[in-house]
Design brief:
The protein is α/β, with parallel strands linked by helices. The chain has helices spanning 10-19, 26-36, 51-63, 80-93, 110-119, 128-136, 153-156, 180-186, and strands at residues 73-76, 101-104, 123-126, 147-150, 163-165, 168-170.
C-alpha cells in the first residue's frame, strides 16, 4: 500500500513526502481509511509505529475544507512533551496547507496561548488541566469541534489511580478495556 491510495489532498501529500514517509505503517493502513470515511476509531499500537500520523493525516484532510480560524479538531494528550510532538507532526504534515495548529498546556504563559487561539487555529493539542482552565476563563471556543482525539498516552501515562474526563472515569489498570466505556459514550460508529 502507498499513501497515494488514501486519495489525500496534494498539499498533504507534499507534507508526507517532506517528512520522508514512503509507505504507511499497519496502524496507518488500518485507521486512515476508516477515519476518512467518518468512522470513530479506537486504535492501539506500540510507540513509534505511526499512530500520530494515523489520526493527523485524516484530520488535515477534513480541515482542508470548511471554516477556518475556529477550533475544529481537539487532541487531548497527557503531557506537554507529547502535546508538542503531536503539534509538530500537525505542523510538519500540514506545512503546505493553511490548517493551523497550536498547543495549550500548563507551565507556560496562558496569555500567549490565548493569543494563538484568538489568531485562529483549527487544531488544538491540549493537556487537560490547561484546557479546563481556558474553558473556565471562556478563552477557548469548542463549539465548532468536529474531531476529538484522546491520545492513548493519556490513559497509559497517568500516575494516579483513575483518570477523569467529564462525567467518565477510566481505570488505566484496565487499559485498553477501561477505555471502552468512555469510547462507547463519545462515539457513534466505533471500529
Amino acid at each position: 500500500m502507498t499513501f497515494e491510495q488514501f486519495s489525500l489532498d496534494r498539499r498533504i501529500m507534499a507534507g508526507i513526502r517532506g517528512v520522508g514517509y514512503t509507505t504507511p505503517t499497519p496502524i496507518q493502513e488500518q485507521a486512515i481509511p476508516l477515519v476518512l470515511q467518518g468512522r470513530d476509531v479506537l486504535g492501539t499500537a506500540q510507540t513509534g509505529t505511526g499512530k500520530t500520523a494515523a489520526f493527523v493525516l485524516p484530520i488535515l484532510q477534513r480541515l482542508m475544507h470548511g471554516a477556518k480560524h475556529h477550533v475544529r479538531a481537539l487532541v487531548i494528550a497527557p503531557t506537554r512533551e507529547l502535546a508538542e510532538q503531536i503539534h509538530q507532526a500537525s505542523v510538519d504534515l500540514g506545512r503546505h496547507t493553511k490548517v493551523r495548529s497550536t498547543t495549550v498546556y500548563g507551565g507556560v504563559s496562558k496569555k500567549r496561548q490565548i493569543g494563538a487561539l484568538r489568531r485562529g487555529a483549527e487544531i488544538v493539542v491540549a493537556c487537560p488541566g490547561r484546557l479546563l482552565d481556558l474553558m473556565g476563563d471562556r478563552a477557548i471556543d469548542l463549539s465548532h469541534v468536529e474531531v476529538l482525539v484522546l491520545d492513548d498516552g493519556w490513559f497509559k501515562g497517568r500516575n494516579d489511580d483513575t483518570t477523569s474526563l467529564g462525567d467518565w472515569t477510566v481505570d488505566p489498570a484496565k487499559y485498553p478495556d477501561g477505555l471502552h466505556p468512555l469510547a462507547n459514550h463519545v462515539t457513534t460508529r466505533m471500529v
